[in-house]
Amino acid sequence: MTRVTVFGGSGYAGSHIVEAAAVRGLDVRSFSRGDVAEQVAGVAYETGSITDPADRARALDGADVVVVAVSPRGDMAGALRPVIADLAADAAAAGVRLGVVGGAGSLLDREGGEALHTKPEFGDDYRPEAQEMSGVLDDLRAMDGAPDWFLVSPAGDFGPWVAGEYTGRYRVGGDVLLTDEDGRSAIGGADFGVAIVDEIEDPKHHRARFTVAY
């Protein structure tokens, strides 16, 4: 049975990943900094922070895959990039695969084009987060002795405001934002969680970023 640990398992992305992994029958541990009110049956919920070296070691212990679903906002702003680099080094040493939920801002607007977060119309409120997660991607790509990692950029519209019901469909792309025939880029939480678990169970992206959208 595949053993998966999720940092940020109580957040929007993390909770959907945890639920999808549990439904699939994986051995799931969820790490968050506070108690989780609504828990999924069969999931081991633990208190811990990605910023704590002891908690990172505990999360890696016995895991096949560790997924980071933490956003660089609040007190995590500016702190997440270096701790993901530390976690990646530890994951490589432990032989654990690393997954990161990376945000849409680092996606390109077209092949060979600009990153979305560099464009004037990108929201200023979200730009620092996008810049930090873009840096995480740069670090992973440049890392000597990197673990088998994948970074997932969700569609442009992704969050509690997007209908999260499971549809069972999604498309996979590379570095360019995926849009539908109406120009919209979106993915619901449930389908996003399933896409991550599909990658965990049937790896297709090794030391690479991919994106998912409807």
Supply Rg: 16 Å
Q: Could you tell me the number of beta strands?
A: 8
Q: How does the overall form come out from the CA principal axes?
A: globular
Label the structural class: alpha/beta
> How many helix segments?
5
CATH topology, which one? Rossmann fold
CATH top level label: Alpha Beta
Euclidean distance between termini CA atoms: 29 Å
Low-confidence stretches: none
CATH homologous superfamily heading: NAD(P)-binding Rossmann-like Domain
What fraction strand? 15-25%
- Element-by-element helix/strand order: EHEEHEHEHEEHE
> In which order are the strands of the major sheet placed?
3-2-1-4-5-6-8-7
Instruction: Summarize the biggest pleated sheet.
Output: 8 strands, mixed
Quaternary state of this entry equals single chain
Number of domains in the coordinates? 1
> Which bin fits the share of residues in helices?
25-40%
Topology at a glance:
Elements: E1 3-7, H1 12-23, E2 27-32, E3 44-47, H2 53-60, E4 65-68, H3 80-94, E5 97-101, H4 127-142, E6 149-154, E7 171-173, H5 189-201, E8 208-213
Parallel strand pairs: 1-2, 1-4, 2-3, 4-5, 5-6, 6-8
Antiparallel strand pairs: 7-8
Helix pairs in contact: 1-5, 2-3, 3-4
